[in-house]
Amino acid sequence: MTVKVSSIGLRGLEGFRVQAEVQISPGMASMVIVGLPDASVKESKERVLSAIRSLGKGVNQKVVVNLSPSDQKKNGPMFDLAIAIGVLKEMGEINSDIPADSLFIGALSLDGSIEKVEGMLPALIAAKSLGFSKVFLPYDPLLPIDMFEDLECFAVQHINEVIQYLHGQTSLALQEDRLMPQKNASPAEYQKDFSNIIGHGHAKYALEIAAAGGHNVLMSGPPGCGKSLLAEAFPSILPPLSKQQQLEVISLYQLAKEQLPEHRIPPFRHPHHSSSSVAIIGGGSYPKPGEISLAHQGVLFLDEMAEFTKKTLDMLRQPLESGKVTISRAHSTVTYPSSFILIGAMNPCPCGYQGSSMRYCTCTQKQIQSYRNRVSGPVYDRMDILLSLNPVNLDRKGRGMESSREIRNRVKLARDQQYLRYQEQLTNSRVSFELLTKTSPLTENQQKVIARMAAKHHWSNRVQIKIIRLARTISDLAGQEQITDESIWNAFSLRRTFPQKQGNVGDRSR
Fold first, then answer.
1. Are 101 and 151 in contact (CB under 8 A)?
2. What phi and psi values does residue 397 have, to the nearest 5 degrees?
3. For the ranges 165-174, 310-319, 371-380, 427-436, which has the lowest average pLDDT?
4. Which CATH class is domain 3-178?
5. C-beta of residue 502 within 8 angstroms of C-beta of residue 509
6. pLDDT band at 316, cuts 50/70/90?
7. In terms of CATH architecture, what is 194-410?
């Protein structure tokens, strides 16, 4: 007879059902685990046998454990509890049937204690999608179990508790004080607010459009003009994360073993320009999420964007288009979500003062071109909004400056319009072009205007599509059902190129 006990395996954030098939037959006392296990799974046999001995039970026959499906690689100690329950059932120590809708997750200590493992939250998300109704798992105070309304979770600390529950001898339930405090009535706290930023009215409006439609932004301006401040305040105008988005973000941070400051606020990642491509994209022998995945549903801010290596910037091209990144290594291939808003900031030239009225630019045209070429054409194409900033006078205080809360309310209304239009949580920057044009068709005159401007500025097809997406977002903010002519012209103004080289005193290019 063969006993089957269910558990969950992970490929990145994607979970799949794993059945621990246990069979005991006459022979020398041993345990063999098959089904493409890695080293940590193979070591489960010693942990499982020791945990069973701690119960006063001995295994004196040959035990074969098959982790199916056999063609999927298994890694981590997540299957310990399922294997142990299967062995005890096969030995006759568990008399009751093991429900088919029950799932067992957890690593075992030698004394039978059940320890938490990496990736429990993605496993719970997978369990819900696979139709399980009960999950036995180790207690973790950081696990938002209360967010899984249709999944009955039982926190267990020892394997004996699971056995007693299966025999109907005790009732396991999570206490309220054990739950992660998700339902907090206090409002989310933002580090910076737009009301504290003096001037930059055009830039604030452009960032409002970027927040409403999920558009990428590239800012250029002399040092100290406010690029970093605007980027750091940008998350404060993004709507709070939905429950599903929170689960995705928390899962990624747990897999990366990173601390998430606030689970309701879209994450903001600000890697240094010396960061390696593996740190930005993700990777390692057993691939972990990188900065682009940790910025999922939030913002990735690349300050001094031209100082990042060209290779690293070009590696962003595929994630920016697809909203996910696939990392292939010898041991495994995993896919992580990476749907983020990219905000880049760079100087207009190496010295930083091209076009400035405060200081002279000392760069030659060749130096400027070489500096800008560090960001490749395909990356420029993927930036929806190009902003040129200039310093502002600090004595312009508090005249009609809106708070982030006011802007955030408008952004939320615009996003709600998009979700209703596309019947799912898709922004204008992410929806397919076919669905965008189907729900918001352009007039013949609008198409001609876009074609004429594209020919004049040598815009690629991708840039033309981004113009349409921007116009759709601008119309949403204005409450318009269709794309208006005015929104198209506003979109053109947001796609302006950076200022050209200007001759001035100290300019060696003349």
1. no
2. -100, 130
3. 165-174
4. alpha beta
5. no
6. very high
7. 3-Layer(aba) Sandwich (3.40)
